[in-house]
Structures are given as C-alpha cells and as structure tokens.
C-alpha cells in the first residue's frame, strides 16, 4: 500500500523494506495521473517506456518518480515549451539536470504543462490548454511552472522540476500549498533548459516539504563535466543539503522583514495576516526578527519587465522555422516565411514580449529602457550586499494575493505581470529563495511566505524552512482531489 501524498523518505523506506517494488511505485504514480489529470491538465505527456539509464537502485532518488517542466531537454522526447512552435521538436540530448537525476536513480515520469516559453504567471498561456489548481479547479495554479507544481500538490509525484526567471516556481508553489526552491544563479547548470532570459534563468525544485526539496536540489546542483554552462558554479562533490536538517532553528539567526513589501497597494490584508502568523512562529522558534527596508525592491517589477523582455527577444530569435520550429507553408518570399512562421507559431503573450524586448533594445530607446534597467539592477545588488551585512535572511510575501479564478486577467496582462513583484528581486540579484506554505485564506486557498538569502545560502534557507515546517501543519495538508 502506498500512502497518499507520500514523502520521498517514506517511499524510500517502503522500497528498502520491499513493501513496494520500483515498478509498483512508478505504475502507481502513472495511474494517479491517468485517473485524475483530466481535471487538472498538469501533464502534456505521461511516458510509457523509460530510459534504461534512469531508475537505478543506487543514489539519492533511487526509483523515485518526478515530473519535468516541458522546457527541459530529455533525450528522445518531445520538448514543446508548451508552444506550437516546438510542438514537433524532439530533444537530441539530455539536460545536465536529467543526467544528474538519472545518475541518482530518479525516474522522469512525464512532461509538465507550463506557460508558453515560461512567460506567464498562471499557466493559462500554454498553447495546449490551462492547468488548474488542485485546491479548486476553477482557480489557476500560478505559473509559469504550473503543471510541475500542480502535479506535486495533487499528489501524482513527490517532486518536479520547474524553471525560474522571475518567480515561476515560488509563485505557483505558494498558490498550490507546496515548497518551491529557486537556487542561486549558477548553482544548477542551465544546459538543456530552453532560454527565456539567460541572465536570470535557473532550474528550480517543487516538492511537498523542505526536506524533499533539499534532497532534489542536492542531486541537480553543482559541477558538470565537461562544463557546458559557463555560468555554472563548481561545488564540492558531496553537496548534500539534507545533512544539516535537524528541525532546530539556527542559533542567533536574524531574519529581516522587508517592511516596504508589506506596505504596497494591492497586498491583500488576508495575506498580510497569514504572513504575520508565520513571522510570529519564526520568532517563537528562536529567530531574531528585525524590520528592514529594501527600497530597491520597489523597482523590481519594472526592471524585470525590461530585462526579461530584452533577453527574450534575442533568445527567441532562433525559432524561425529554419533551424528550429514549425515552418509556415503559406509564404511566397523568404521574409514572409520567417514572418508567418513566427506569427503562426508563437502565442499572443510571447509575441507581445518579443516586440517589447525588441523595442527596449532598439537604437534610440536602449538608454531610456534597457540601460536604465541594468542600472536599477546594479542598485538592487548593492543594496542586497549591504542588507546581508545586517541580517542573515530576508522575509517577504511570495505573491500579493491568493490564486485567482481562471480568466480573471484575460484582458489585463499588466495585472498578471505584477504577480512577479516580490519574486523577481531574487532573480535579478541572483540570490536563492524559497517559498514555504503558511496557511489558508477564507476561500481555503493556500498561501506561502518567502525567505531569501545571500548567494549560496541554500543550506541556511533549508534549515530555517525545515525548522518552520517541523513546527507547523501546513505541509501535511492536501487537496481533496484524490477523494472525489
Ligand atoms: N511571471 C514571470 C514572467 O512571466 C515569471 C516567469 C518565470 O519565472 N519563468 O515572466
């Protein structure tokens, strides 16, 4: 018998005691997905046959199945980025994270739905249909890694990989009541991750507990040989984040509460109340709570808006119907072939971003937009360095509100863009951050809080997160989906 919503540790124990076989476990997860995913649409493809290199019995994730966001290359499989442009693209190599997962014995069960090219905050911008929130199927799960996060929250798999450019793992994790971890820029190789905004992109982890997230990050982090992502950092070979997780708040830890993040128009009072409860809990566990101001955080959304679009316009230039991507069959000239391939293939949101990105980089406008954004980013980095001299970690909301019903912002893309307000700061500065569940709103929708730390502080983030998790019930609460 496999319990519902099992932790990775529970599954490992059941496997070790031979209560379940690796095959039982894999089939169990596939069955759950086949049975319940029609209502959620977390998955674009559930695999039937598995790579012989995966599922080994030695390793941190031996036989443990998970899902992969569909912008990460798995050799021999389609990788669509939830776009018509790449609908028929087959990955010709494995991303470094996939190689590492296979070496650790993990099973990749399928490809998770997402916003097209990871652009969005609700997973409503997938070319293949929206994903829904397992807590209420009329609500969005958040995005852009909504498929990965909802599959974990729904209990289909214990872990999934997403990607983070401005908050795409943390925001849906908070809205679906699970843990989302965005690593330090460079901690995880981006080789095999389809680029959106390369200077911000990082692969992130979704899991139902801090412990499980730490375990998966330990597997995917660190060096690759040969080096294929020149921004990837070298780490000791025995990088194991779970070693330090004892459930005790580190002595003398100072957590800075970002005051200006609580006093912004648009932050729901209900979210503030739940975050205050989380702060009170952290204090009662022994953390020193220090109010701080981080004025440059207020520049985050605007800065992110410009830099992400600029890089996207350049990264997505390769999808022209020649080397990559679907090619239009209605074109009389070469120019029209390019133009038609791109307008037929890309969805509206992606096209809007390419156009904005091209504009902010264009001659005569680059100084006003792109260069100002880089200056603002520098200011944010400077302020971050200073503040981490005063406190060890920073506390902020993940999102200003709970999840919203599907279609709410169909006519208002600016409101969707503002979802990144509190999360994109960590991407712009390159620091790690974690979203941890901390309760429910009156509509029974989950909420999370966010901790950010200095570069390479994943260990500390997980220690504090695990101490909080050990003292609170939120990570043990799950949607009713499997009971109806
Ligand atoms: N919501 C952000 C965007 O749409 C985040 C995207 C991401 O992190 N991939 O750009």
Distance between the termini: 19 Å
CATH topology of one domain: Amidase signature (AS) enzymes
The biggest sheet, with number of strands, parallel, antiparallel or mixed sense and barrel status, is:
11 strands, mixed
| Helix-strand pattern | HHEEHEHEHEEHEHHEHHHHEHHEEH
Q: What structural class do you assign from the helix and strand content? A: alpha/beta
**Using only CA atoms, what is the Rg?**
21 Å
Mean pLDDT: 95
Strand order of the largest sheet: 1-3-2-4-6-5-10-11-9-7-8
| Low-confidence parts | none
Topology readout:
Elements: H1 8-16, H2 22-40, E1 43-46, E2 65-69, H3 96-103, E3 107-112, H4 146-153, E4 159-164, H5 170-176, E5 179-182, E6 202-207, H6 210-220, E7 254-258, H7 259-262, H8 269-284, E8 288-292, H9 300-315, H10 334-345, H11 348-361, H12 367-390, E9 393-397, H13 413-417, H14 424-429, E10 433-440, E11 446-452, H15 458-471
Parallel strand pairs: 2-3, 2-4, 7-8, 7-9
Antiparallel strand pairs: 1-3, 4-6, 5-6, 5-10, 9-11, 10-11
Helix pairs in contact: 9-11, 9-12
Bound molecules: glutamine.
Residues 118-121, 144, 163-168, 196, 308, 419-420 line the site of glutamine.
């Amino acid at each position: 018998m496999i319990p519902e919503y099992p932790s990775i540790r529970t599954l490992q124990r059941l496997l070790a005691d031979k209560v379940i076989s690796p095959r039982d476990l894999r089939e169990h997860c596939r069955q759950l997905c086949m049975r319940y995913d029609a209502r959620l649409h977390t998955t674009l493809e559930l695999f039937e046959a598995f790579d012989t290199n995966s599922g080994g019995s030695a390793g941190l994730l031996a036989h443990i199945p998970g899902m992969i966001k569909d912008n990460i290359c798995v050799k021999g499989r389609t990788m669509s980025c939830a776009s018509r442009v790449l609908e028929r693209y087959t990955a010709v190599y494995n991303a470094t994270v996939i190689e590492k997962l296979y070496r650790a014995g993990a099973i990749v069960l399928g490809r998770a739905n997402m916003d097209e090219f990871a652009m969005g905050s609700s997973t409503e911008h997938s070319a293949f249909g929206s994903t829904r929130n397992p807590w209420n199927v009329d609500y969005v799960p958040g995005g852009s890694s909504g498929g990965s996060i909802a599959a974990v929250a729904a209990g289909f798999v214990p872990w999934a990989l997403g990607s983070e450019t401005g908050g795409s793992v943390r925001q849906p994790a908070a809205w679906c009541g699970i843990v989302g971890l965005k690593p330090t820029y460079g901690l995880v190789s981006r080789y095999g991750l389809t680029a959106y905004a390369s200077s911000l992109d990082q692969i992130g982890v979704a899991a139902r507990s801090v412990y499980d997230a730490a375990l998966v990050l330990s597997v995917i982090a660190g060096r690759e040989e040969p080096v294929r992502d020149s921004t990837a950092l070298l780490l000791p070979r025995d990088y194991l984040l779970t070693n330090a997780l004892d459930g005790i708040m580190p002595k003398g830890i100072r957590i800075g509460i970002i005051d200006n993040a609580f006093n912004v128009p648009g932050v729901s009072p209900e979210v503030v109340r739940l975050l205050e409860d989380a702060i009170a809990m952290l204090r009662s566990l022994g953390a020193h709570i220090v109010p701080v101001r981080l004025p440059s955080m207020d520049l985050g959304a605007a800065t992110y808006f410009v830099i992400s679009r600029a890089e996207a316009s350049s990264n997505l230039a390769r999808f022209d119907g020649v080397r990559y991507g679907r090619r239009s069959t209605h074109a009389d000239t070469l120019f029209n072939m390019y133009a038609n391939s791109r307008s037929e293939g890309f969805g509206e949101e992606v096209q809007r971003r390419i156009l904005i990105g091209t504009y902010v980089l264009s001659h005569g406008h680059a100084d006003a937009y792109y260069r100002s954004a880089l200056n603002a980013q520098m200011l944010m980095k400077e302020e971050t360095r200073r503040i981490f001299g005063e406190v060890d970690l920073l506390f902020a909301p993940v999102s200003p509100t709970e999840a919203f019903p599907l279609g709410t912002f169909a006519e208002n893309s600016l409101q969707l863009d503002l979802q990144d307000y509190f999360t994109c700061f960590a991407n712009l500065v390159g620091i790690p951050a974690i979203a941890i569940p901390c309760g429910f709103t009156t509509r029974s929708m989950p909420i999370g809080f966010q901790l950010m730390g200095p570069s390479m502080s994943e260990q500390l983030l997980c220690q504090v997160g695990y101490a909080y998790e050990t003292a609170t019930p939120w990570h043990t609460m799950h949607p009713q989906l499997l009971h109806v």
